[in-house]
Amino acid sequence: MGKIICEKHGENTIAFISKYHADNVFNNKKHIPSEIINIHVIDKQNAFNGNYIIDPILIKDIGIRDFKINFQTEFGKYEKMFDTLTPVCSKCWRSYKTT
Length: 99
Ligand SMILES: [Zn+2]
Prior knowledge:
With 99 residues, the chain is of the alpha+beta class. It is 33% helix and 32% strand.
């Protein structure tokens, strides 16, 4: 977890979300609850486990099933998802998903 300098909130922790949501956060758009999708990455070696916030378009593009990516057997999907992740200020992210 790194730090980001936000124009509104100053120094803050980073939230990594898909580019689609990041663009909405930057443009002060309202979120649509069904578009906020939590993907669980399962890594047997315990290095890349985690939850990532992405959107329905990306799910379709990558072909993610059951909101899960197995790091060992679906590395290509993980890589594609990871490429789109964009760092945003965690407070801006929180206010986007609550308004
Ligand atoms: Zn902020």
